[in-house]
Protein backbone atom coordinates (compact mmCIF):
# COMPACT_ATOMS: atom_id res chain seq x y z
CA UNK A 1 0.00 0.00 0.00
CA UNK A 2 1.51 3.31 -1.05
CA UNK A 3 0.68 6.30 1.15
CA UNK A 4 0.03 9.32 -1.05
CA UNK A 5 -0.86 11.70 1.79
CA UNK A 6 0.84 15.06 1.93
CA UNK A 7 3.30 15.35 4.86
CA UNK A 8 0.91 17.67 6.73
CA UNK A 9 -1.93 15.14 6.52
CA UNK A 10 0.09 12.07 7.45
CA UNK A 11 -0.34 11.15 11.11
CA UNK A 12 2.29 12.29 13.59
CA UNK A 13 3.12 8.98 15.22
CA UNK A 14 3.88 8.89 18.94
CA UNK A 15 6.01 5.79 18.55
CA UNK A 16 3.72 3.79 20.84
CA UNK A 17 1.55 1.64 18.58
CA UNK A 18 -1.31 1.03 21.08
CA UNK A 19 -1.68 4.80 21.56
CA UNK A 20 -1.44 5.61 17.85
CA UNK A 21 -4.09 2.97 17.08
CA UNK A 22 -6.54 4.70 19.46
CA UNK A 23 -6.14 8.11 17.85
CA UNK A 24 -8.60 9.00 15.04
CA UNK A 25 -5.91 9.65 12.43
CA UNK A 26 -3.71 6.74 13.51
CA UNK A 27 -1.50 9.27 15.31
CA UNK A 28 -1.61 12.93 16.26
CA UNK A 29 -2.77 15.50 13.75
CA UNK A 30 0.09 17.52 12.26
CA UNK A 31 -2.20 20.53 11.90
CA UNK A 32 -3.75 20.92 15.29
CA UNK A 33 -3.44 21.97 18.90
CA UNK A 34 -2.47 19.31 21.45
CA UNK A 35 -2.44 20.07 25.20
CA UNK A 36 -0.24 18.37 27.77
CA UNK A 37 -0.43 18.79 31.54
CA UNK A 38 1.22 17.01 34.48
CA UNK A 39 -0.75 14.74 36.77
CA UNK A 40 0.70 16.75 39.69
CA UNK A 41 2.34 20.21 39.56
CA UNK A 42 5.66 18.66 40.64
CA UNK A 43 5.63 16.61 37.41
CA UNK A 44 5.84 19.73 35.21
CA UNK A 45 9.48 19.12 34.14
CA UNK A 46 8.40 15.76 32.68
CA UNK A 47 6.38 17.63 30.07
CA UNK A 48 9.52 19.02 28.48
CA UNK A 49 10.91 15.55 27.84
CA UNK A 50 7.55 14.27 26.59
CA UNK A 51 7.15 17.31 24.33
CA UNK A 52 10.58 16.94 22.79
CA UNK A 53 10.10 13.19 22.38
CA UNK A 54 6.97 13.98 20.36
CA UNK A 55 8.73 16.71 18.39
CA UNK A 56 11.55 14.31 17.51
CA UNK A 57 8.92 12.11 15.85
CA UNK A 58 8.24 14.92 13.35
CA UNK A 59 11.76 14.25 11.99
CA UNK A 60 12.12 17.82 10.77
CA UNK A 61 15.14 20.10 10.61
CA UNK A 62 12.93 23.20 10.41
CA UNK A 63 12.88 25.62 13.37
CA UNK A 64 10.69 24.99 16.42
CA UNK A 65 9.36 28.08 18.20
CA UNK A 66 9.03 27.72 21.98
CA UNK A 67 6.81 30.42 23.53
CA UNK A 68 7.05 30.55 27.32
CA UNK A 69 6.02 32.90 30.09
CA UNK A 70 8.56 34.55 32.37
CA UNK A 71 6.87 32.90 35.37
CA UNK A 72 7.36 29.42 33.84
CA UNK A 73 11.04 30.15 33.20
CA UNK A 74 11.33 31.38 36.80
CA UNK A 75 9.68 28.25 38.17
CA UNK A 76 11.21 25.58 35.92
CA UNK A 77 14.04 27.16 33.90
CA UNK A 78 14.66 26.56 30.22
CA UNK A 79 15.59 23.24 28.64
CA UNK A 80 19.29 22.46 28.52
CA UNK A 81 20.05 23.18 24.88
CA UNK A 82 22.61 20.44 24.37
CA UNK A 83 20.27 17.90 25.97
CA UNK A 84 18.00 18.37 22.96
CA UNK A 85 20.45 16.41 20.82
CA UNK A 86 19.35 13.26 22.70
CA UNK A 87 16.03 13.78 20.92
CA UNK A 88 17.67 14.38 17.55
CA UNK A 89 16.90 18.10 17.76
CA UNK A 90 19.67 20.62 17.22
CA UNK A 91 19.86 23.41 19.83
CA UNK A 92 20.09 25.89 16.94
CA UNK A 93 16.72 24.61 15.71
CA UNK A 94 14.82 25.93 18.77
CA UNK A 95 13.82 29.60 18.93
CA UNK A 96 12.79 30.75 22.42
CA UNK A 97 10.23 33.54 22.75
CA UNK A 98 9.65 34.63 26.35
CA UNK A 99 6.69 36.83 27.23
CA UNK A 100 6.60 38.93 30.40
CA UNK A 101 2.96 38.34 31.33
CA UNK A 102 0.82 35.20 31.21
CA UNK A 103 -1.94 36.98 29.27
CA UNK A 104 0.53 37.70 26.41
CA UNK A 105 1.19 34.00 25.71
CA UNK A 106 -1.81 33.29 23.44
CA UNK A 107 -0.87 36.24 21.19
CA UNK A 108 2.75 35.04 21.00
CA UNK A 109 1.55 31.56 20.05
CA UNK A 110 -0.74 32.96 17.35
CA UNK A 111 2.12 34.95 15.81
CA UNK A 112 4.50 31.97 16.02
CA UNK A 113 1.99 29.70 14.27
CA UNK A 114 1.71 32.24 11.44
CA UNK A 115 5.47 32.04 10.83
CA UNK A 116 6.29 30.26 7.58
CA UNK A 117 8.83 27.46 7.38
CA UNK A 118 8.62 26.11 10.93
CA UNK A 119 8.23 22.53 12.13
CA UNK A 120 6.08 23.23 15.19
CA UNK A 121 5.21 25.63 17.99
CA UNK A 122 5.37 24.88 21.71
CA UNK A 123 3.57 26.97 24.30
CA UNK A 124 4.33 26.73 28.00
CA UNK A 125 2.28 28.55 30.59
CA UNK A 126 -1.25 29.05 31.86
CA UNK A 127 -3.80 27.41 29.56
CA UNK A 128 -5.80 29.91 27.49
CA UNK A 129 -9.58 30.08 27.83
CA UNK A 130 -11.76 28.27 25.30
CA UNK A 131 -11.87 31.21 22.89
CA UNK A 132 -8.07 31.53 22.98
CA UNK A 133 -7.57 27.82 22.39
CA UNK A 134 -10.07 27.92 19.51
CA UNK A 135 -8.16 30.77 17.84
CA UNK A 136 -4.90 28.83 18.19
CA UNK A 137 -6.49 25.61 16.87
CA UNK A 138 -7.91 27.40 13.82
CA UNK A 139 -4.55 29.01 13.08
CA UNK A 140 -2.89 25.58 13.28
CA UNK A 141 -5.28 24.33 10.61
CA UNK A 142 -4.92 27.43 8.43
CA UNK A 143 -1.12 27.45 8.55
CA UNK A 144 -0.70 23.65 8.58
CA UNK A 145 1.36 23.77 11.80
CA UNK A 146 1.21 21.61 14.93
CA UNK A 147 1.20 23.25 18.36
CA UNK A 148 1.93 21.56 21.68
CA UNK A 149 0.68 23.49 24.67
CA UNK A 150 2.20 22.52 28.01
CA UNK A 151 0.19 23.82 30.96
CA UNK A 152 0.75 23.33 34.68
CA UNK A 153 -2.10 21.46 36.34
CA UNK A 154 -3.67 24.12 38.51
CA UNK A 155 -7.06 22.52 38.90
CA UNK A 156 -8.67 24.79 36.32
CA UNK A 157 -10.92 22.91 33.96
CA UNK A 158 -11.41 25.41 31.17
CA UNK A 159 -12.89 24.11 27.99
CA UNK A 160 -10.45 23.61 25.17
CA UNK A 161 -10.47 23.32 21.40
CA UNK A 162 -7.40 21.06 21.48
CA UNK A 163 -7.62 17.92 19.36
CA UNK A 164 -5.98 15.90 22.13
CA UNK A 165 -5.31 16.51 25.82
CA UNK A 166 -2.63 14.51 27.60
CA UNK A 167 -1.86 14.09 31.28
CA UNK A 168 1.71 13.08 32.03
CA UNK A 169 3.42 11.55 35.05
CA UNK A 170 7.02 10.31 35.29
CA UNK A 171 7.52 6.58 35.12
CA UNK A 172 8.30 5.16 38.55
Taking pLDDT < 50 over at least 5 consecutive residues as the criterion, the unreliable ranges are 1-7
What is the averaged pLDDT score? 86
Count helical runs. 5
Q: Cα-atom Rg, whole angstroms?
A: 15 Å
Count of extended strands: 6
The computed structural class is: alpha/beta
Arrangement of strands in the largest sheet: 3-2-4-5-1-6
Alpha carbon gap, first and last residue? 40 Å
**Main pleated sheet:** 6 strands, parallel
User: In sequence order, what are the helices and strands, one letter per element?
Assistant: HEHEHEHEHEE
Helix content: 25-40%
Shape: globular
Q: What amount of the residues lies in strands?
A: 15-25%
What would you say this structure looks like, in words?
This protein has five helices and six strands, in the order H-E-H-E-H-E-H-E-H-E-E.
Please specify the SSE layout and strand pairing.
Elements: H1 17-22, E1 33-38, H2 44-56, E2 64-69, H3 70-76, E3 94-99, H4 105-113, E4 120-124, H5 130-143, E5 147-150, E6 164-168
